[in-house]
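Hi V.,

You were right to ask for the full record rather than a summary. Here it is.
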Amino acid sequence: MMTPLIRARMALAAASAALALATGMRCAHADLGAEISRAVSATGLKKARIAVSVRRMDGAGDTAARSLPSVSILAGEPLVPASNMKLVTTGAALLTLGADFSFRTRLVLDGDRLVIVGDGDPAFADPALLAESTMTLPNGTVKQGITVEDLVGAWVRAVSAAGIASVREVIADDRIFAREGHHPVWPKDQLGESYCTPPSGINFHVNALRIWPQHVAGGAPDLSRMEPAIPGLDIRNRASSRNRKNDRNSIWFAVSPVDGSLTAHGNVRQSYVEPVEVALVDPASSLALLLAERLKAAGVAVGGARAAVAGDPAPSGRTVGPVIESPLATVITRCNVDSQNMYAEALLKRIAHARTGQAGTWTDGARAIHETLARVIGMQPAATFAVSDGSGLSRANRVTADGMTRWLVALAGEPGAGPVFADSLAVNGRTGTVRKRMNDIDPAHAVVQCKTGYIDGTSCLSGYVTAPDGRRYAFSVLANGLTEPAAVSKAKQLQDRIARLLADELKRDAPRAAMGG
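Predicted structure:
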C-alpha cells in the first residue's frame, strides 16, 4: 500500500525528471560551470583577471535577450580585449555597410587629370589576396596569381587603349578618410612596425613595402629588390654585409614619419629569402607615383603625380579601365582569420564615413560602433564597451565577456550578416591564428570558429563552438594582467580547454537533441 507521503515524493521525483527533460541542459549547465571554474583555478594564475561567459544557442532565431548565460565568471568586468576588438568592428561593418557591400577603387579621367578614387579598401593590392586572384591578359590567357605590377598594368593598358596620350597629373584621392596618421594611444615604441600601419583612404599593398636585402661581400647590402617598386624612394643605406663568426642577419629600417624616407641599419650576413616589411607612410602618393611612372614607360606623357589636397574638386568624369572591387566578406575574413590590424581600422573609418558622409575618423568610427552596439544588444550592455580603435592595439578599449557573448549571439541571429560573420572567423586546427590549436576537437562533434587576441599582458579568445546539427555555444574568455611566468601560455591552454569542454558538452547532448529534448 502506497502512503500519501510516498506518493508525494514519487510525484515530486517525476516532476523533477520532467522538468530536467523539458529544460534539457540545466543540470549539464551546472556541471559545465563547475568544470570551467575548476579549469580557471587550475591555471594557478594569482595576479590575472580572467573573465568567462558562455551562452547556449539552440536556433538561428536566438537573440541576446533570449539566450541566457550558461556560465558567467567575472563576466561583467570591463577588460582589455586586444584583437577580440575585431569581432566588434567586423560585425558592426556588416550591420552598417551590409553583407553585400563591396569596396570599389576606380581610375577616373577628369579633364586632363587621371584620378585614383579611393574607397578605403584595405584589400587593394594586398599581396596575399593578389596571389589567389586571376587576371585575363590581352592575349586571352588567364593568369593565376597576379602582382602589383599586373594590377597597375591593367590601368596602364586601359589608358593607352582609350587613346589618352598625355595627362597633366595623376592624383590619388584618398579623402574618404581623414589623414590622422597613427592612432594617438598606440604604443609609441612600435609605430614603425608593419602591424601599426595606419589606414588610408587609398590603402596600397597593406600599406607596407617589402624589401629583400642581398648580401654584398665587402660593402653595403643591395636593397634594390622591393615590392612595390616605388619610384624615387629615399633609402639611406647604413647597413653592413659582414659574415664573421658572430655576425647575423639583423637589418632593420627606420621610417621617417615626415617624408617616408627609410634608413637601413644592421647587417646582412646572408641574402634574405623572406622579405623585410616596412611601413609605407603615404600609400596614396606611392600609388600615384608608381602609376605615373608606368604610364610614362608606356608612352603616356605625365606632368606630375601626387595625393589630393583639400582644395582639389571632387573627382568627376568617366571611369577608365577596371574597377577594383573587394567584397566585404573577403575583407572581414582577412581581418579576422589573419588578424590584420590595418583592415580593422579601415573598416572603422569606413563605418564612420557611411554614417556621417564625411571623411572617416577614429572618433566618428568609435561613436558609430558604440551606437550599433546599443541598438543590437541594448543600452546597458553596450555601456560596458569602450571603443578606442578598431583593431585592439589600443589599451583604451574595454569589453566584458558578457557583452561579447551577447554581441556574438545577436550577430548570429542576423539573417544576412550572421553566416557571413561566422564564416569570417578562424577555425580550430585549420586556419589563421588557431591553425595549430584545439587539434584534438573532433570536427564530427564540433567546430570552433573564433578570434584570438594578444597584446602584452593580455590574451583572449571568443567565438562559437558549433555542432554539425547547428547546436551552438557562444563563448568569450578574456585574460588580463598576465605578468606571471608562462602566464600567456597558461591562458591559451585555458581557452583551449574551455572550447574542448563546450565541444564535449555538445557531443553528450546530441542524443537529447535528436529526441527533441
